[in-house]
Structure formats: structure tokens, C-alpha cells
């Protein structure tokens, strides 16, 4: 058995500590040692065997290059040969902003996101324990939740379903919802039918499914993430309202949420390409999509910050309990302070200036202030603002459809100066 060179799909975290294959009988005993939302599953094994991944998530540039080339590069010679690369139809390949945004911007970002999420999230379980949020009384339940999440992540059934949905349903979803209703580089409009070109056939049945496979895997991982946070929030967590992060110790979850920034940017890029095509090739205007853009931004914020809101009830209860407990303590101290220094109970030889009682009163005020400022969600306005900026950056070039670059620069200078 020691000579067997297979990878255990049930516990692939071992790969983060060694580049050697692990055998079926080598199983980690501590599920909370390192947790990964992305390090596992049959497709991960396939990428390992194809050398597109070097454990745990190496060969990033090579992996992005190969997958992007598979999806985008064949379209170039095929459209050149058909005369639809830069002209010949209403929407030639060179000016199809949606396909380039999808395959040259969003696809690489979704692949990059795997490494970012792996790095930022692998210590999440340890932080729950190190901060004593998860105590020994609930440790076994916490470990069971982590193990359940890893089983879902490694599910063969789930990944087979995702592959089938991407390659069987993806082309039809794209054709019905996103394909342009005119002659393009990928199809000729004949009545109500689209007759695919060679490039269109590749794009429809290879490029689109590859992209949707990666995208659907992310949606499945986000489902696992939501489920994990919900189950953890049901435990009797040890939340301390005096914690200086103003989140009873859960503030690290807001920082982990930044790991999903590439996913937000990828979705924003998709929307930017979609809208750009409608503006340039169908005569639409940017203001016509204002509600869709605002709704998309709200939905993306909900996608990454919504799961953290499951802790709101417990954080609110911890805050109220802290205000009551420390409010009573503050009242007791304030009454004693007033009786001593204002009521004449202090010794005549004891000076007020420099008294430890004054410093203790200030410390008590500071502690009580932390409890008053405790947030009921483990993130703040700054986190929301940063995500809004991340979403807005890929959409910024759309402003050029309303103003020339010179006019846009003049307007910016007027605002700044």
C-alpha cells in the first residue's frame, strides 16, 4: 500500500504541506488544522495529473495560459479564415467586447481567485480556535461542520453534475440569453435561427462550457461557504463584546471576505462586456442599463457579504448582554467614585490628581465605548466601499460611450481642481 501513487480526494489538504502524492491510508486526524474551500475534488485531481497544478496551487501562470488559450486562441485563426476577424459582418470578432471580456478578463480572474481564496482562507478554522470563539465544549461540533464542508467540496456527484450542466446546458443558456440577434463572427442570422460558423461552433461548445464550468464551480463553493458559516453561527460561540475588533472577535471574517474580490471583478467584467456590445452594436445607451448595473452591484455585494450576516443575531445578543453587564459594572464604579470623591469619603491626605481611581474611570469609559461601537455584522463601511470600487473598476470604460476621453479627463480635472 505504501507504493500506491494516488491522491486521496477526501483529505487533499495534505498536499499543502508536501508535494509528494499521499496514499489512501494517510488521513489527517485534525480537520481544523487547515481548511480550504478550493483544494480538493475530482477536477482538482485531474489538474494535478495534467501538471496544470503543482501542489497546492502552483503553476498559476501556466494554468491561466493553457485554459485561456483553449477557450480563446482557436477563435483567432478560425475568424481570420472566414473573413470575420475585423470585418465582413455587423459584429466581427475583434470588436466583440463581450467575448474578450469573458475569456481574456473574467476567465483568468476566476482561475486566479482559487489561489487567493486558498491563501486567505486556510487559517480560518485555526482563528476560530485561537481566538477562543470555539471552546472545547463545542470543538467536536465545529470539527464535524468542517468535515461536512470538505466532503461536499470533494463530492464526485456534485462535480459531475456541474460538468454536465456546463457542457450540456451552457450552450443553450448562452444562446437564449446572451447571443446577439444579428450577423456576427460566430453565427449568421437566418430567419429566427443562428447558423454557426466554425469559430462559433468552437465558442459555443468549447469556450462557453469551459468558462461556465469554472463559474459554476465557484457558485458551488460559495454555497458550501454559506452553509459552513450558517452552521457555525448556530453553535454556542464564545463572543466577547470587549474585543477591540468591535466584532466580538469575529472581525477576521471581514478580512477573509476580500479573498472573493477577483470573483466580483470577474462578474463586473462580464456585465461590462455585455453592456458594451449592446451600446456599440445595437445602439443602446449606458443610462438605459443604470438599474441593471445598480442591481448587479447590490447582488455581488450580497454574494460576498451576505453570508457573514448570519452572525448578526449572535453579535447583537452579545452586544446587548455586554451593555447590560458592563453598564451595571460602570454604574457600581461611578456610584463608588462619586461617594468617595464628591461625597467626602476620600482620605484628606489622598490627592485626586494622579489618583488610580481617575485612570480606572477612563479605562472603564474606553471599555464601555468598545461595547457601544460593536457592530452586529463582522464588517464595516470601509469593506463595503472597497468592494464597490472593485466592482466599479471594470465598468469604468463604459463611461467612454457617453463622453470622449478628452471630455472625460476635463470633467475629472474640474472635479479635482
Describe the fold and architecture.
With 417 residues, the protein is mainly alpha-helical. 60% of the residues lie in helices and 2% in strands. It has 15 helices and 2 strands. The chain has helices at 42-49, 60-72, 75-82, 97-121, 124-130, 139-153, 156-177, 198-233, 252-256, 261-282, 290-305, 312-342, 356-372, 381-395, 405-416, and strands spanning 187-190, 193-196. It has a two-stranded antiparallel ribbon. Helix 4 (97-121) runs antiparallel to helix 10 (261-282). The longest helix is centred in the middle third of the chain and has 36 residues, at 198-233. The protein is globular and about 95 Å long. It starts with 41 loop residues before the first helix and ends with a helix. Residues 1-30 have low confidence and may be disordered.
List keywords for this structure.
single chain, 417 residues, mainly alpha, two-stranded antiparallel sheet, 2 strands, disordered N terminus
Order of helices and strands: HHHHHHHEEHHHHHHHH
Q: N-to-C terminal Cα separation, in Å? A: 72 Å
How large is the share of residues in beta strands?
under 5%
Number of H- or I-type helical stretches = 15
In the sheet with the most strands, the strands line up as: 1-2
Structural class, please? mainly alpha
- Please describe the biggest sheet, giving its number of strands, its sense, and whether it closes into a barrel: 2 strands, antiparallel
Mean pLDDT: 83
Counting copies of identical and different chains, the oligomeric state is single chain
Categorize the overall geometry. globular
Which bin fits the share of residues in helices? 55-70%
- The value of Rg in angstroms is 28 Å
Residue windows where pLDDT falls under 50 for at least 5 positions: 1-30
Number of strands: 2
Amino acid at each position: 500500500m505504501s507504493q500506491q501513487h494516488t491522491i486521496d480526494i477526501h483529505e487533499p489538504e495534505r498536499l499543502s504541506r508536501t508535494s509528494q502524492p499521499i496514499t489512501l491510508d494517510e488521513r489527517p486526524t485534525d480537520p481544523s488544522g487547515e481548511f480550504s474551500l478550493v483544494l480538493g475534488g475530482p477536477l482538482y485531481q485531474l489538474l494535478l495529473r495534467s501538471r496544470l497544478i503543482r501542489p497546492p496551487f502552483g503553476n498559476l501562470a501556466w494554468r491561466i495560459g493553457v485554459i485561456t488559450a483553449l477557450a480563446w486562441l482557436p477563435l483567432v485563426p478560425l475568424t481570420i479564415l472566414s473573413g470575420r476577424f475585423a470585418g465582413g459582418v455587423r459584429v466581427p470578432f475583434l470588436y466583440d467586447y463581450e467575448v474578450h471580456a469573458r475569456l481574456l478578463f473574467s476567465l483568468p480572474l476566476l482561475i486566479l481567485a482559487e489561489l487567493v481564496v486558498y491563501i486567505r482562507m486556510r487559517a480560518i478554522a485555526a482563528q476560530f480556535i485561537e481566538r477562543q470563539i470555539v471552546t472545547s465544549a463545542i470543538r467536536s461540533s465545529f470539527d464535524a461542520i468542517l468535515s461536512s464542508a470538505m466532503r461536499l467540496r470533494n463530492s464526485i456527484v456534485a462535480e459531475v453534475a456541474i460538468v454536465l450542466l456546463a457542457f450540456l446546458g451552457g450552450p443553450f443558456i448562452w444562446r437564449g440569453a446572451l447571443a446577439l440577434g444579428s450577423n456576427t463572427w460566430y453565427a449568421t442570422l437566418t430567419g429566427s435561427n443562428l447558423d454557426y460558423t466554425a469559430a462559433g461552433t468552437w465558442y459555443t461548445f468549447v469556450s462557453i462550457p469551459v468558462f461556465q464550468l469554472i463559474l459554476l464551480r465557484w457558485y458551488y463553493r460559495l454555497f458550501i461557504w454559506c452553509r459552513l458559516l450558517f452552521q457555525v453561527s448556530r453553535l454556542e460561540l464564545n463572543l466577547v463584546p470587549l474585543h477591540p475588533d468591535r466584532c466580538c472577535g469575529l472581525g477576521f471574517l471581514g478580512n477573509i471576505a476580500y479573498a472573493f474580490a477577483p470573483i466580483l471583478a470577474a462578474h463586473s467584467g462580464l456585465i461590462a462586456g455585455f453592456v458594451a456590445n449592446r451600446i456599440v452594436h445595437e445602439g443602446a445607451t449606458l443610462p438605459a442599463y443604470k438599474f441593471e448595473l445598480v442591481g448587479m452591484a447590490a447582488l455581488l455585494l450580497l454574494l460576498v457579504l451576505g453570508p457573514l450576516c448570519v452572525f448578526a443575531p449572535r453579535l447583537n445578543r452579545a452586544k446587548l448582554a455586554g451593555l447590560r453587564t458592563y453598564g451595571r459594572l460602570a454604574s457600581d464604579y461611578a456610584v463608588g467614585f462619586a461617594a468617595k470623591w464628591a461625597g467626602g469619603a476620600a482620605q484628606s491626605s489622598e490627592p485626586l490628581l494622579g489618583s488610580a481611581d481617575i485612570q480606572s474611570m477612563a479605562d472603564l469609559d474606553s471599555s464601555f465605548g468598545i461595547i457601544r461601537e460593536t457592530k452586529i455584522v463582522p464588517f464595516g463601511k470601509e469593506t463595503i466601499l472597497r468592494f464597490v470600487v472593485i466592482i466599479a473598476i471594470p465598468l469604468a470604460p463604459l463611461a467612454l460611450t457617453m463622453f470622449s476621453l478628452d471630455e472625460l479627463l476635463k470633467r475629472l480635472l474640474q472635479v479635482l481642481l
